[in-house]
Design brief:
The protein has about 190 residues and is mainly β. It has helices at about 10-20, 160-165; strands at about 5, 25, 40, 45-55, 55-65, 75-80, 90-95, 95-100, 110-115, 125-130, 135-140, 155, 155, 185-190. A hairpin with a 2-residue loop joins strand 10 and strand 11 (about 135-140). The chain is globular.
Length: about 190
Amino acid sequence: MCNTFLSPSHPKRIEWAFSQTRIPVRWPEEPMPNRGVTGDLRPTDPAGVVVPEGDGGRLTWMAWGFPRDKGGPLINFRSEGRTFSRADRCLVMAAGFYETTDPVQPGQKRKDWWLFTAPGVELFALAGHVRGDRFTVLTCEPGPDIAPYHDRQPVCLFPDQWRGWLAGEPEAGLIAPTPAGTFQVSKKET
């Protein structure tokens, strides 16, 4: 499942994206972390997330993954059969996300990495679940674009859905596989 995502090239892109939706977002007072935030983000990296605040949201930096007693952090969280209060939600701002498959070429040891981006949409959001100062990415059944690569997908929310997620609207209709043609897939050269 998604263990790397492509964050916006600069946090100002998040500000621009929200200005297009007219959702008010308060900007962070704390400085941007020295690592993470932009580019390919991996578990435990800090990322720019928007948490609910007032009639909009607040951009902040949170580490990806809930700590666990054994193994690495919990980075993905199944959404089926669960509800999420407004305070437990966040939008994880993304320009794309990766899935891996076994190598196509025989004898190759490394997995193949596939980047999913949304043509015509500079930024979308991964629906997130917050605990304290950390987040995890919600998952659901895969849509047709993702199914050939993985049996799960991150819950992807597009600008017209951001207000509903931040406002705490019911999950039905917001948590769903993406329709065919939502994503363009390209192989990442390693």
